[in-house]
Amino acid sequence: MRCQKFVVLAISLVIAFNLPGLAQVAEQPVAIFHAFNQNYNDVRKFVCQLADRGYSHIQIAPAQKSNSSQEWWARYQPVDYDVIEGKGSQADLQQLIAQAHKCKIKVIADVVFNHTANLGGGDNFEDLTKFPGLTQNDFHSAPGNPGKKPCDINYSDGNRNSELNCWLGGLPDLKYTANVKKIQKAHLKKLLDLGIDGFRFDAAKHMPANVVKEYVDYINRESQGKTWNYLEVITDSDTRADDYKWIAAVTDFILYNSMKAAFTSSGDLRSLRVPTAIDDSRSITFGRNHDTIREINADAINPYDDASDSYLATAYVLARESGTPLILNWDNADAPYIKTGVKFRQIMRQRGKAGGNVKENVLAAVNSSTVLLMERGNEGFFVVNKAAGKFDIPALDLTLTDIEGCYRELRNNFTVAVQRRQNGKKFVTRWGTQNRGGMEVQGRDALYFIREPWQQCQIGR
To answer: Is the pTM of this model over 0.85?
Structure first.
């Protein structure tokens, strides 16, 4: 009988590790701070501040030895997967991870497995022997012409052949030979042994899905399912999120494009009442990331003309229940309400775990192209005003919402009361002071409110 129980348990474990729906078992991050292109020693000095602000994870620059240029993109051109070098040594990385774990911050590593650096700067294979452990047979070459790169990528030819087999931006494209897989899995194992808690797979859409799945399964086995992983998948005419989201969470460029259209000056925030996005609550959401910034990327993807529009989009991303926000280090520093949004998201996560109603719902109570009001059940609400001028209305009927009681704005520390009248309808009866109701939001601002005991609305501000 004991043997039968053991067999059943063993079969159950095998099934658990191979079912697509269970590929990711670690808890979803509250919010990820992207320490974009920062040295590990510098990150170690402030990582504990992130925990105080509400972040659960930090994403670091790729660790492997790369192109020696000091430009940010050089970190995404691997040279040697066996060496940690560029933004810090192996010891530096280990110290950063140890410090982060002391503060209960988890660390996500960025891995670049689709390609290597082009050391020769040309199309020939003569320099591919310079990569330790790799041979020319580990790279894609032109059919019938093994000494040349195969082709350029066509993102709209109706198939994914060029995305998978051609050179991305002139960078030598790796084939997933047994040798390449061995080297790359050794890199994953090195990072796991140092204490890494999750992985971002760069350029995942240029890798065969079965290979990505093999790597994620390897990570899950080695970590006993404790890592949280996601994939960079930039959707286009040939690549859909569905091609990869069955493996792990993917980057939500569909939502990014929806927000970009809504938050620019000619856009309408009412379009976000039911936003167009990837149908996956885990997806990585962002107001902008390093691929969408024109100032650092000549090939930026649908960039904003005004960076402050993207800050307001980031505020919206943080207010939502769905998604996994990725916050660029620059934006965290430049927009004060983004820090508030991270704390709001942490509080909503905590209250949701405690059984509170934190359901996300964009409300029609404010019918404006420039102002969006979102409730998080009855535990909180969010409002953003993208217009230059103040939004000010004397009365706000919230009868058809879950919002009721006393709420405090986290950044400005003023209270708002929502009460029922004798006719059964709910109105804002206090906005900051007892002398006014309705709603007042300054131009280009975002506010986050959490429910408080009613007594808070009877004293002070």
So the answer is: yes
Q: How far apart are CA 209 and CA 223, in angstroms?
A: 21
Residue 345, token pair as written in the block: 């998201």
How far is Cα 54 from Cα 350, in angstroms, rounded to an integer? 11
d(CA 197, CA 223): 8
Q: What is the pLDDT of residues 355-371, one digit of tens each?
A: 999 999 999 999 999 99
Q: Closest Cα partner for 445 from 408, 415, 409?
A: 409
Phi and psi dihedrals of 444, rounded to 5?
55, 50
| CA gap 212, 220 in Å, rounded | 12
pLDDT reported for residue 11: 40
- How many helical (H) and strand (E) elements, i.e. helices and strands, does the chain have? 10, 19
Least confident of 9-13, 333-337, 360-364: 9-13
b/e per residue 147-160 (b: at least 16 CB within 10 A): eebbeebeeeeeeb
Helix (H) or strand (E) holding 430: strand 426-431
CA terminus-to-terminus distance, the chain: 68
The two structure tokens encoding residue 440: 């007042």
Residue located via tokens 């990711």: 24
Q: What band does 19 get if pLDDT is binned at 50, 70 and 90?
A: very low
Spatial CA neighbour of 429 closest among 405, 410, 412, 449: 405
| Cα gap 270→86, rounded to integer Å | 45
Whole-angstrom Cα distance, residue 81 to residue 95? 20
Please name the amino acid found at residue 18: N
**Which is it for the CA torsion 385, 391, 392, 398, positive or negative?**
negative
66 touches 78 (CB < 8 A): yes
Task: Determine the Cα–Cα distance for residues 130 and 109; give it in Å rounded to an integer.
Answer: 25
**Distance between CA atoms of residues 288 and 291, nearest Å:** 8
Tokens of 304: 């904003």
Predicted local distance difference test score (pLDDT) of residue 122: 65
368: which residues sit within 8 A by CB, 6+ positions away?
269, 270, 391
- Rounded (5°) CA angle 309-284-201: 120
Question: Per residue in 399-429, pLDDT tens?
Answer: 999 999 999 999 999 999 999 998 999 999 9
Q: Hey, what are 44's tokens?
A: 């170690």
Question: What SS3 state is found at 57?
Answer: strand
CB neighbours of residue 36 within 10 Å: 19
pLDDT average, residue stretch 439-452: 98
264: amino acid identity, one letter = T
d(C-alpha 362, C-alpha 29), whole Å: 23
Task: Give pLDDT tens digits for 36-73.
Answer: 999 999 999 999 999 999 999 999 999 999 999 999 99
